[in-house]
Amino acid sequence: MKELNLRELIKYKKLPFNVYNEKGQILMYTGDLLTPGKILELKEAKFLIYDENFEKKSLKERENPLVIKRKQSQQKALEYSKEILKELDSTENSIPSTVEIPSSIIARVNDYTVARDLKINKKSIFSSEMQLSLKEFYKDIMEELEVRNYPIAQTKFIKLMNIIESELQDKISLVNHLSQLKLFGEYQNCNSLNVAIIAGFITLKNPKINADTKDAILSGLMHDIGKTRLDQNIAYKKVLYIPQQAEYEKHVIIGYKIIKEIFKLGNAIARPALEHHVTFDGTGFPKEIVLDNTTEISKIIAVANYYDKLTFNRTPNIVEYNYEAGKILLNLGTKKYPADIIYDIANKYILNDTSKLSELVEDKRL
User: 74-363 is classed in which CATH architecture?
Assistant: First the structure.
């Protein structure tokens, strides 16, 4: 391995080799485009290294792992998906087979060479290992979606749904505050997981809500799936210009189509992807949809998503303590979303929480 100067690197538009940081973690793969955003990420590394023997390697050895995945036959992916779905069907009542973290994910969590998000919530109801595993599992699914391995991605979504549902059922009595359900780290890696967990929790704890817990969790995991088809510099940008906003809003239509047309799932899962940005005050989108006409799960996903954005400081309202998020939910959220859902979770699980959000976060560096 040889040290690499960033000035030398920027002459490439597309990388001809893998780039690693000082810990040996891969930052960029062969074939990745060197965008301005990527350059900023690379600047955070103490120094960069690459394989000086790269040119001597065979074409197969050089190949980006994501390109290799893309070359997998669709038939193989379909067969894999059918096998797993058959296994889930045949062991529907057997909890261990459906909720176990896959060994490949555990290996990623334990592999120090894998660049990953190591932040955990110290007061979470989930163990630190489970928190890291959930984030790694979600990232694994995003990699499948990136290379359009939809059957495998769908199967993994189902597995992840079952894991979250089992964890919630097992530990729900430990929840005193909503912040105990929250994963911390990279927003784009945590948001859908947090929305899924909180949505599942709301359906379990509120007997008035007529919604299936598993449907709520799966909807949360998939609600932003349309962002996988957007320019990633727009998909998770905190502040958008008007042309970017128009592009960003397409993700709800794209997500709905992926779930309906590719995953072949029904409205219980597809409509929340379409409707989770619809609001009472008309500031949301799509504009032609009225909140009263959205599904119960869509409303739950919208509230859970708003809470997660507040506690990640992804809104104009700066939040330092969890109870502050509860106040904003009551003051502003009820103008946008169903008051009954907000009142229930804010009064029971947020307003009584004096924890400082930054003090909940611990970095599990190796």
Answer: Orthogonal Bundle (1.10)
